[in-house]
Amino acid sequence: MPSSTTSIKVLEERVLAHFKLRFQPDDQFYWSASEQVVHFRRAQTAQDLWCLLHEIAHANLNHQHYLKDIQLLRQETEAWHTAKMSLAPLFELCIDENFIEDMLESYRGWLHSRSRCPACQQTGIQQTTSTYQCINCLCSWSVNDARLKQVRRKITSI
């Protein structure tokens, strides 16, 4: 585990040089399948390096867009597994399992918020990328797409 900012920067440069991918400094970490670019925030901590490896894993796994929320969770789980088991050891890093679980839990919470019926609060079934229907009260609603923002649900029929 790197102990100083200098060694973190050195490790980041090693990671960036190792993979034959396009990288773009940004204010957040994400893999853009449409651009074929790994967007990343400059590493300040070991956790930043872990996130960079996670996004590289998405690229190496050729993760594309998802249609259902459960597919997103599966891609996130696969990318963290690949980052931890295959990529981190290349740089003598060990990704903390609790960190991975915290990251996955943020997605689980986001998915739960999207699927909760705005009328009766029961869990609904996803119909399309942005619509759900409640099996309890038959309410239908649409949701916003933003994973990094607050979930918004709008009732479309009751």
Task: Please characterize this protein's 3D structure.
The mean pLDDT is 93. The chain has helices at residues 5-18, 46-60, 69-87, 97-115; strands at 22-25, 30-32, 37-40, 124-128, 131-134, 140-143, 153-157. It has two domains: 5-112, Arc Repressor Mutant, subunit A (Orthogonal Bundle), CATH 1.10.10; 119-157, no CATH class. The protein is elongated. The protein has four helices and seven strands, in the order H-E-E-E-H-H-H-E-E-E-E. It is α+β, with helices and mostly antiparallel strands and 158 residues long. The strands form two sheets. Strands 4-5-6-7 form a four-stranded antiparallel beta sheet, with no helix packed on it.
Identify the notable features of this structure and list them briefly:
three-stranded mixed β-sheet, 158 residues, Arc Repressor Mutant, subunit A, alpha+beta, four-stranded antiparallel β-sheet, single chain, 4 helices
Q: Give me the secondary-structure category.
A: alpha+beta
CATH class division of the largest domain:
Mainly Alpha
What Rg, in angstroms, do the CA atoms define? 18 Å
Please state the second-level CATH architecture of the largest domain. Orthogonal Bundle
Mean pLDDT: 93
SS elements, strand count: 7
**Low-confidence regions:** none
